[in-house]
Write a structure and sequence with these properties.
mainly beta, Mac-2 Binding Protein, Thrombin, subunit H, 2 domains, 6-stranded antiparallel β-barrel, 3-stranded antiparallel β-sheet, 2 helices, elongated
Length: 270
């Protein structure tokens, strides 16, 4: 049996093409539907459909949608006929990041426990099995967190970043410990502390307090977790200073999340 592999892409000018049996073909607009537009954008890891239009095609072979009511790339069939003589031109929203479903509370101490998947970029960084810090997913197997998370003063001063094998990361869960349906656990391959990280001992102020954490390749999930669990983890957004002025950024609301104190001088939430 032939190994038939399908894939769908949107070119830089918005044309929808699909890979079929070793080659890419334009997708004919015949039988195209909003369901397929939404399906392609989701397949590409993007957000909602911004616009869908058609563009004139003059080709001898096309891929045509068989069933317009359900998105399934295996339902594309090769055909020499395209009644509309047009292809699909699709614009998807940029890949989603930084979108929270949480009801925001203006507290750092004494806040409410987050709902599942409320902050899908939040990760719990554990050292020898104990909660150490909160980190944020930035994509491609990397997290960003604070540099001070990797320095210990008790019982002896120690640079923990030199021993990434003692760290693990919990993703896809609002719990810093225990079982969660969509929990994912990964080892840590590499820790990169900002080279200019310093602490002013007289004021205890930290400068360049930033570090990157590279996840290992051994991502573990509970046995009951389905493939949909990957959607429970998404990256945080970073402001692009080429598009936003400092004055504009100062008007934005910022939120602090993590596993902290439930009350002043209280215990850490789970």
């Amino acid at each position: 049996m032939c190994d038939v592999r399908y894939d769908v892409v949107v070119t830089s000018d918005g044309h929808v093409s699909a890979y079929y049996r070793g080659a890419f073909y334009s997708v004919c607009a015949d039988n195209w539907s909003p369901v397929w537009s939404a399906g392609v954008c989701e397949h590409l890891g993007a957000g909602a459909v911004l616009s869908m239009s058609t563009v004139t095609l003059n080709q001898s072979v096309y891929l045509t949608v068989v069933n317009s009511s359900a998105y399934n790339v295996t339902q594309l069939t090769l055909s020499a006929v395209c009644n509309t003589s047009a292809g699909v031109q699709l614009v998807c929203h940029e890949a989603s990041c930084g979108l929270s479903s949480a009801a925001i509370q203006p507290f750092i101490v004494g806040g409410q426990i987050a709902d599942e998947n409320a902050w899908p970029w939040a990760a719990a960084l554990l050292y020898q099995g104990r909660y150490q810090c909160t980190a944020s997913v930035i994509g491609n197997g990397w997290l960003v967190t604070a540099a001070h998370c990797f320095f210990s003063v008790y019982p002896l001063p120690q640079r923990l970043s030199d021993a990434p094998q003692y760290f693990t990361v919990r993703l896809g869960s609002v719990l810093s410990r225990g079982y969660s349906r969509h929990l994912q656990v990964a080892s840590v391959k590499r820790i990169v502390v900002h080279p200019d990280y310093t602490v002013d001992v007289s004021t205890n102020k930290r400068y360049n307090d930033m570090a990157l954490v590279q996840l290992g390749d051994d991502l573990l999930t509970p046995a009951t977790t389905t493939s949909s669990s990957s959607s429970r983890v998404s990256p945080i957004c970073f402001a692009d200073y080429q598009h936003y002025s400092l004055a504009t950024l100062k008007t934005w609301q910022c939120y602090v999340i993590g596993w902290g104190l439930s009350s002043v001088d209280g215990n850490c939430e789970s």
